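Memo to structure team: turn this sequence into structure tokens by end of day. - J.P.
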Amino acid sequence: MAVLGSLKTFKGGHYFGLFEGTPRGKRLQAAPLPQRVLIPMRQGFSAEVAPVVKEGERVKTGQIIGRNEPDPKKPSTPVHASISGTVTKLEKRPHPLGGETLYAIIESDGKDEWVTLDRPANYEKLPPEELGKILYEAGVTSGGQAGFPTIYHSAYATPEKIRYLIINAVETEPFCEATDQLMYEEFDKFVNGIKILRQALGNVQVHIGLGYNKPRIYEELIERFEYYDWCTIHQLRPKYPQGDDAVLIRTLLGLLLPQRGYATDVGCVVQDVQQCVAAYEAVVEGKPFVERVVSVAGSAIKEPGNYRVRVGTPIANLLEKNLKCNGRIVVGSVMRGQAQGDLEVPITRETPAVIALREAQYELFPVAGPGFDRDSFTGAYLSLPWVKYKRATTSLNGNPRPCVKCGYCVDVCPQNLVPALLGEYSANGLLSEAQSIDLFACIECGLCAYVCPSKIPLLEQIREGKRKILQETT
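Reply from structure team:
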């Protein structure tokens, strides 16, 4: 039968409450079909791929529009059209995650005609290589921080090097509720997707990490995996950033990722709920990975919700007529992401949320209020049971001030680092000193900057230090 793990957690981290504008419990609904999509040729973990279509060419939904020849030095996964219509442009644009990449811009014809994958009659009898091919052709292998290994070089590792499949079913990012809702609404697809991914890796051991605040899902998983001794189900404390690869693997298996390394370096593949469901839809329904679930949330949103959105949809489509005030737009993660000024930034396969935060207003006496609706790491503000949602604005409480050596950043760091020193060394060009105290072990969760009472931009400083070192070594 399935093995049941004990309740686990990790040192550091932070429990976030519910913030104003969180789409709590909102059912998934389909976003309107976009009239125009901007599809980057770099998706998820993959390297940029070469377009296989030309300007003026008509394409169908699910048709491959970009791919590379398999290359172990540049893992990649095919990119697909997410609507049917005409390719109007192939041009370079900024990528949501930084840098530039080639985009295919497609104008919709309103028909949404599909090209589906060849589906096997009985996928349970397919060898791993055949399953891997289907997942690769569907674009599912681009997901996660390290990709999904196949013989087509969709990750730096190959399937025979993998010993464990880790399923990340614990969502701890503020505002990101869509993948949890997907797990509830598509539970059968989620479970069978796990089996498909395991089979594609050659029947490895599976470890499922689930928040202990989901008892109904936990009982269902126990029932569905009752007769499978290759599956271990772990209950985890839903503390941010439990869902990060490095933290999740250390919590479940006690394995440490090497600096600048990936989960595959320690024989693991980490996949989330969306990727499990996408694997099922690819193998059983023949559906390429052209649509994902996205939370539209934040204190500046009128009606927060969870949506099924086509890849390449501009975020303006999701925010149109849904902003109640001026807000700062963040795509992906409010903790790790960066503000976006361009509303043509598209949804990609790895976008879990579009968040609009209300700009902070000037307070004459900011310390006069009791702060019942504020989030506080230190307990400086009391929480009351009738205050359901915490306030979320862009306030940084003034300009950065000198470090007061409080140690809060050390307390929350999930990697047992000293972020204040890492930031100071990086900001002052002491890069060798920063490396000597494990700069590249930082997973950039952003908690250090979040709890810093001096409001030092520690995350930005650490990122800049890494960038400079990488520039010097290339």
